[in-house]
Write a structure and sequence with these properties.
16 helices; about 475 residues; mainly alpha
Length: about 475
């Protein structure tokens, strides 16, 4: 068999089925890949643009100095702690809406969206209020230094307001993605992020009649962008032809029968989110306590790790939605195949990303700073990222399919072991005990990502997730 034939066989329907019995007619591989890529395209564009906005955002803040990078970066994990309840709810929303779409139950899908919108609004209002009130102790606990704590508190209190709009936007778009409409999410977030960049430019350094607000300006720009994105998402629900809209005969009052399957998925997803946030928060504390230069390097390199993650996350949206719809249509064979398609596609993308990080590691670091120590440390971290990207994107696809099917107990277990225990423990050991500093912390990240990839891949291959009912 020639190399071309081997590659074709690897990407063919027989390899995608992986020895499983077909539950019906199997479409040609070209059709399956085509459907996957059409659905994934908008999500990948959206996710990558979000990551690029984060990169540009940090570059703009970096004009204020390395400590400004620290002040903005230290707020990242506290922000995600607040949003973890919304992320958990969005996981259940995507899974259940996808099932209802597969069952051709449009009213049921709209009822899910309305219920989670009301519940989510109450949750995010309470959490953002707590975040604003306890901003300083929260950030100090996260590892903030006295040298930048003042700017960090100002930034975080404004960011907390933006989380109200971000949270609602996440919930609406999670339902849209479950229904297979990934273009709406792409459009809203693209416009919102462009608005964010525009006001970053106007407010950080003060352009024309706009005042120079520095770190405060970056936070206000984020708030304005989030408000715009949320507004567009809500307006889209007033278009009658959209699958999800406010005109369907589905009430707004929370209903337990509607929310029960959502909570079934979201409860385990919340446990997973809390474990993840604990692990990431603890890991961030470990790095933040090294020294300000190491932490600034970490924040910069995490921007590029988020770029790698977002490619995987974009393709994962398609794999999750198509797997959920296939399960709703009683086609577990197709659900398994779509997961396999996602895993194959991200290997190709990871190879391109890896080569990019290796070749451009020092020019990328110079976009942020002229400090030689940061550039040198960042170059080594980006070399490590060129390896991490393979394990990261692969596990994102697998865990995404498991969550979309409702197998959130297992993904919570993975997070407990890999993120809650292994990541902070190995990061601390290699950073402080072994004495590798920042490099040791990043080596701990590689250990975590690899373990998650192994555990999630094994679960997908066993196929128990294909039998879960929602």
């Amino acid at each position: 068999m020639s190399l071309t034939q081997k590659v074709k066989a690897l990407f063919g329907t027989k390899a995608l089925l992986d020895g499983r019995t077909a539950a019906g007619e199997i479409p040609p591989a070209e059709k399956l890949y085509g459907r996957f890529l059409r659905l994934a395209g908008p999500s990948v564009i959206e996710a990558v643009l979000v990551a690029l906005v984060g990169i540009v955002d940090t570059i703009m803040v970096s004009t204020l100095g390395d400590l400004a990078i620290d002040a903005v970066g230290i707020s990242t994990q506290p922000k995600f702690v607040i949003l973890c309840f919304i992320f958990a709810l969005s996981t259940g929303t995507t899974a259940v809406v996808a099932r209802r779409k597969g069952q051709e139950d449009r009213e049921g899908a709209n009822a899910v969206l309305r219920n989670v919108f009301v519940i989510g609004l109450g949750i995010i209002l309470l959490l953002t209020l707590l975040g604003r009130v306890y901003a300083e102790p929260f950030l100090r606990f996260a590892g903030a230094h006295d040298s930048y704590i003042g700017d960090a508190v100002v930034y975080f209190r404004i960011i907390c307001i933006s989380l109200i709009f971000q949270g609602l936007n996440v919930l609406i778009n999670s339902a849209q993605k479950g229904s297979g409409n990934t273009k709406i999410s792409m459009t809203t977030n693209l416009i919102g992020n462009l608005v964010n960049i525009l006001f970053n430019w106007l407010l950080i350094n003060g352009i024309g009649p706009f005042p120079r607000l520095e770190v405060r300006g970056a936070a206000i720009a984020t708030l304005i962008g989030a408000m715009v994105a949320c507004t567009i998402s809500v307006v889209r629900l007033f278009i009658r032809k959209n699958y999800l809209n406010v005109f369907e005969d589905a009430g707004w009052r929370p209903s337990f029968p509607v929310l029960k399957p959502v909570f079934k998925v979201s409860s385990s997803a919340l446990v997973e989110q809390l474990i993840m946030r604990f692990g990431f928060f603890t890991f961030n504390m470990i790095v933040a306590r090294l020294d300000p230069l190491s932490y600034a390097t970490h924040i910069i390199c995490m921007n590029f790790m988020s770029l790698s993650f977002c490619f995987g996350d974009g393709f994962q949206v398609a794999a999750t939605a198509l797997a959920g719809q296939s399960l709703g249509a009683k086609r577990p064979d197709l659900a398994y195949m779509y997961c396999g398609i996602g895993r194959r596609v991200v290997v190709i993308v990871s190879t391109l990303l890896s080569l990019f990080f290796i070749a451009m590691r020092y020019p990328l670091m110079r976009l942020y700073t002229d400090t030689p120590e940061i550039i040198e440390m960042g170059g080594v971290c980006l070399l490590m990222l060129s390896v991490i990207t393979y394990t990261q994107t692969a596990q994102v696809i697998c865990t995404g399919c498991l969550r979309g099917a409702g197998d959130t107990r297992y993904t919570a277990m993975i997070s407990l072991i890999a993120i809650g225990i292994i990541r902070p423990l190995s990061g601390y050991v290699f950073a402080y005990v072994v004495g590798w500093g920042l490099y040791g912390a990043w080596f701990g990240t590689l250990v975590d990502q690899t373990l998650r990839m192994v555990l999630s891949s094994a679960r997908v291959r066993r196929g128990r997730w294909l039998e879960i009912q929602l």
